[in-house]
Amino acid sequence: MDMDALDVKVRHFMERFEMMRTNINILLSKHIQGVTANLNNITFGSHSAGAEITIAMMKLNHQGIKASVFLEPMVMYLNTTIPFELPAVMFGTQLSEEGSSILFPPCVFPQYDFTHVYGNWCLQKFKWRPRATGNCDIMDPEGRNMCREMHLCKMVPNADLQSYQLYIQGLTTGFLDWVLHKRQDISYLTNSTLAPIPLMNLKFEGLPG
Is 208 a residue whose pLDDT tops 80? Predict the structure, then answer.
């Protein structure tokens, strides 16, 4: 994706985001009584190259955004430190940077991966890298099966996807509970011995105290 294409996508998603922010509570009121969205607690999330658009959007306007979650980010146009403070969590996997064959490149290039984003992010940041998992292992079965059948991504045939996906879900929930609801105990985020799956690394910076 070149810069012109990125600009078009960012404008498109910014329009959609503002439309959502304006109309979400109107929509909820028509379907669920007594439930409203707290528009002061917005979180951005992305997978793979979607992180490029997410970061570009936040550079344009991060007002009201409280945190960001990056699943396997691949970001080519992040060359300087983010100019604002925003807690973030980043996940990478062992196999995402290994191509499935000579015909297909890696899903994520090492120089643009979650470590690259982590190095250019502000403080209050976490990163994890589970073993024996790949870029598509976080996806629903339909998407993952397509990647497997087309040999797009390197995968472990008998990977314990349920444990991996539940772990990522738990980490994300714990992170957002800490940011949005001021949860005090975040040992699940910082202590690798509590992880139910093997990790290659875990790192965090900027935590209070």
Answer: no
